[in-house]
Amino acid sequence: MLELLPSGAAHVVAMKVSGRVTAPDLQVAIDAIEATKKTQPLVSLYTEIDEMRWMTFTAFLRDLGYGLTQIGDLNRYYRAAVLSDRHWVRHLTRLENHLFKSMEIRTFTVRHKPDALEWVSHLPGPPARHTA
After folding, report:
1. Mean per-residue pLDDT, 77-99
2. Which phi and psi angles does 61 have, rounded to 5°?
3. If residue 124 lies in a helix (H) or strand (E), which one and from where to where?
4. Which of 8, 41, 98, 117 is most buried, by CB atoms within 10 Å?
């Protein structure tokens, strides 16, 4: 199951993943990301992973397909905060950080949820102006 959560920032798509994730579940997240991309120059993602057991094969294919369509648009993604106490999630996040250099990805433990929300809500400031 995948449910959208309030994020507190217009550029952040927040979700909670638990149990079994299906293709329709995943489509909800994709639609939310695409809607945010229409109104925001940068998109950040916040994901709580709580007792996720598995993803259906069609959900996996949809996730893979959507990911491939985003390769040319990776500069639109700023940060991803993943909230989980699962060790396998930390390892996966490290791998994704190496694969997606344009996006900063961090894992937070459940007790650091406020830190995760604050970090993912941050946007880069305007470039510094040099005065002569």
Report:
1. 76
2. -65, -40
3. none
4. 117
